[in-house]
Structures are given as C-alpha cells and as structure tokens.
Design goal:
The protein is built from 21 helices and no strands. By secondary structure, it is mainly α. The protein starts with a helix and ends in a 7-residue tail after the last helix.
Length: 489
C-alpha cells in the first residue's frame, strides 16, 4: 500500500498546485466585473465545458489504450486530425446557434460574444490530446510542469485584462490568444521526440478502430458531464445573468475530488486489475477500505470546516455582494463527504465499464426530474438540491454494484469505525473553531479559524486513533516532495 500511497501523493501534490493557481481567477474576476458580466462569463465557460467534453469524442482517453498497441506517431497524428475536424464543427455550430443560445440564456450580449468565443472552443479541442500523450510516454513530471505553466499564463493574462478595465469582449479575445499559445506550445512536444507525428504512416492508420473504442467513452463522459452541469444549465435558462452569477459563486466546487479522490482513483485503476485477475478480492477490499479511510481524513474535516465558515468563505473570497450565494454553497458542500468513496473505479477494474454508463444515465435522469420538480418549489436552490440528491443515489447504486462484484456486504466496504473516529475528531475541532468564527471578523476569522480547526483536528484525530503513525509518516513524505528536506524535520 505504501507504493500506491506514494504514487497517489505525486499526483495529489501536482493537481493541488495547479488548482491552487486556477482558483485565484474567479476571486479576481468578481472584484472587477459586474454581476451581469460575471454571469455572462460563467455562461460562456459552461458552454465551453459542455461543447468540449462532448466533441472531443473520447479520443484523448483512447490514447492510453492504443499507445502501446499501435504505431504511436500514427495514433497521435490521426487523433489530432479528427480533433481538428471536430473542433471546426463545434465552432461552426456555436456560431450558428448563437441567436438561439442568447435567447435561451436571457442574455442578448451572448449573441455578439459567441461567434468570437467559438474560436476559443475550437482551439481548445484541437490541443486536448497533449496530456494523454505525455502520460502515455511516461513523462509525468514534464506534463505536470507544462500544465502548471499554462495555468499560470492563463490566470495572469485574464486577471491583467480585467484589472486594466477592459471589457468582457477583450477577455474573450484574451482567451483566444491563450488558446493559440497553448496549441502552439503543445504542438511542439507532439511534433518532436521518438514518437513525433512526422513519423506517422498513412498506411497504418486505424480511425475506425479508434472511434469504435472512443465513442462509448465519449457517451459515458458526455452523460456524466451533462448530469454534473445540469443544475447550472437549468438556472442559466430560467434566470437572468445576474442570478446565474450568484448561483455560480455558490456552486463553488472545492476541487477535493479532482485533487485527492481522482488521484487515488487513477492509481487504483492501474493497480487493482492484476489483483482482480488473480481472484484476490479480499485484498482489493482491504486496499479500497484503506483508501476510503485515508481520504476521509481530508473530506470529513473539510466538510465540517467549510460548513462552519461558509458565509466567511463567500464574503472574503467573492465580496459581500455575493452573500446570497451562501445558501447554494451550503447545499454544494454536501457533495464533499462522498468524495472519500472511490466508487466508479470498481466496475472499471473488473472491465465492466458498461455499468458506469448505466449509473451515469440513472444520475442524469434522476437529476433532471428532481431539478424540474424542485425548481418549482425551491426556486434557484432546487437544481442544487437535485444535484446532491441524485449524486448520493448514484453512490448507493455503486456501493451495491461493488459489493456484488467483490462478493462482500455493503457495510464491509466501509471502514465504519475509522470514519466514526474521524467524524468525532472533526466535530470537536469544529466546536473550537466556531468560537473563532464568532469572535473575529473577515480575513482574520477565516485564516485563524482555519489554522485552529486543522491543528486541533490533527491532535484530536491522533488521540482518538483516526490519524495513525503511518499516516503521519506519509504526510511527512508528501511534504518532502514539495519542500527541501532541510526545511522538514
């Protein structure tokens, strides 16, 4: 388990740095943009996320499967060609649908912005295979370094444009400039080296086989993304850009799932299939339980802390103008506890990816039904409640599937004793941190309250046995990956 922990730690540290830089952008934009402008910006990003995810056709993910099974330069070249064609189609579709989308989003300004923004979306799709190629080549550190550099460039560019008082239209042109730089920058790395696309062979092409593999992946991913963004789509369609700005701030997803859960899940996906093939299901259950226990040391205290300081987080990070977002933020925080469960990985390591697609369909349908019903009774809060409800129903479905596949009871998949100890320690730390939240104002409350909470949680969790000596050693090892050894005892 130690080696799995070390591999996951490397990805966690890298993702944490990347998202820490990216998190600065919305904090800056809300300070220099009106709520209407910020709402329009978030609508553009929503459309970009949906269009890019659907129209990448699952091709970047297919690189992992085919890289060692085919002629790599040909694989890279044909993937790039198909993505360019798909990006062009996406861009043309956005231009054609601009009047309709502007009407549906109740935002006339989108009609002029979308034809320009379509260029950014197309360029984004063109360059999306880079990360997958680098990982397939085993160039993890270089890939992470380049992605972090890209994030710094994007955030710096957009913040500078807005800080200088330029319009949202200028911001869109800034995004186009960044996407152009990103495409050129990434193309250099796929056009050089032993697997350069210049060595591609027309006679060794296999687009039919690649699309046959990638399109089902695209279907599952597309359904999942639409399900995750459905609440935002419904709010954008039903309310004004100002209301959507308020909702999008409240729908602040703390990226603990991407940083921690996703990193651990990728390691498990690579490590568990061999154990499944050997029939060592008990070992799989043990590793899964241990992963859940360790993730709970992050997710449970994070949920408690953000629940206590929710109002401070919104007002300090996004200004007092967005206090109306706090209630939505509270609902979104309910997603955090389930991030300690790596549920969708179990069917995948058994080779039963069709089950993931079924759960994605179930989640989308339940989310849609609940959203439309609750929108009527809870207003803007309804889609957020629907998202959380459908997400927990999906988790229950995955737990049932996983117990069947592993031949064990649902309760045996969960380290209940360890989870109870962690929750008890978090509750004790939360009680003390609440005093800080009451006494101190603004930034000082958030910073000192955070320090008080996580220090006392560490102490309490160690005393009650939730945090173990091996965990402390692993944490020290993770810190050594970021700081020089001389700075860490």
């Amino acid at each position: 388990m130690a080696s799995l922990t070390e591999n996951a730690a490397a990805l966690i540290v890298a993702n944490g740095l990347k998202y820490a830089v990216g998190f600065i952008l919305p904090m800056m934009l809300v300070r220099w943009m009106s709520q209407g402008e910020y709402g329009t910006y978030q609508q553009l990003i929503l459309l970009s996320n949906i269009g890019s995810t659907l129209m990448m056709l699952g091709l970047p993910m297919s690189v992992y499967y085919f890289y060692r099974r085919s002629h790599a330069p040909t694989l890279i070249a044909q993937t790039q060609i198909i993505l360019v064609a798909s990006g062009l189609v996406t861009g043309i579709a956005i231009v054609a649908l601009a009047p309709t989308l502007a009407a549906r989003f109740h935002d006339a300004g989108l009609r002029q912005l979308l034809p320009i923004f379509a260029i950014y979306v197309a360029l984004n799709i063109f360059s999306e295979l880079f990360m997958n190629v680098m990982i397939s080549q085993g160039r993890y550190r270089l890939e992470v370094t380049l992605e972090l550099l890209e994030t710094v460039v994007r955030v710096s560019l957009l913040v500078t444009i807005v800080a200088l008082g330029y319009s949202l239209r200028a911001l869109v042109f800034g995004l186009i400039g960044y996407a152009t730089f990103r495409l050129i920058f990434r193309s250099y790395w796929v056009w050089t080296g032993t697997d350069s696309v210049r060595k591609a062979s027309w006679s060794r092409r296999f687009p039919g086989a690649q699309l046959a593999y990638s399109l089902p992946l695209a279907a599952s991913s597309g359904v999942g993304v639409i399900g995750n963004l459905l609440d935002k789509m419904i709010v954008a369609f039903s309310f004004s850009p100002v209301d959507y700005a308020v909702y999008s701030v409240g729908a602040l997803e703390i990226p603990l799932d991407t940083i921690f859960q996703g990193s651990v899940a990728n390691v498990l996906r690579a490590s568990l299939p061999s154990l499944i093939a050997e029939g060592r299901h008990r070992e799989v259950v043990r590793i899964w339980q241990e992963s859940v226990r360790k993730l709970s040391l992050v997710m449970i205290p994070s949920f408690v802390f953000f629940s206590i300081f929710a109002s401070r987080v919104i007002s300090v990070l996004f200004t007092a103008r967005y206090q109306a977002s706090v209630l939505v933020f509270h609902v979104y925080l309910l997603l955090i506890p389930q991030y300690m469960l790596i549920l969708n990985a179990v069917p995948q390591v058994f080779g039963k990816t069709r089950l993931n697609f079924y759960v994605a369909i179930q989640t989308l349908l339940t989310n849609a039904v609940f959203s439309l019903v609750l929108l009527r009774y809870l207003g803007m809060l309804g889609p957020a409640v629907a998202l959380v409800t459908s997400s927990y129903l999906a988790s229950l479905t995955y737990l049932f599937m996983s117990s069947k596949l592993l031949g064990t009871r649902i309760l045996d998949l969960l380290p209940l004793n360890a989870l109870a100890r962690t929750a008890f320690a978090a509750a004790l730390a939360g009680g003390l941190a609440s005093l800080v939240e009451i006494i101190l104002p603004g930034w000082s409350s958030l910073i000192l309250g955070g320090c008080a909470f996580f220090v006392t949680f560490a102490v309490f969790s160690y005393l009650v046995g939730a945090l173990r000596a091996t965990d402390v050693e692993n944490i020290r090892s993770w810190i050594h990956r970021v700081l020089p050894r001389a700075m860490v005892p």
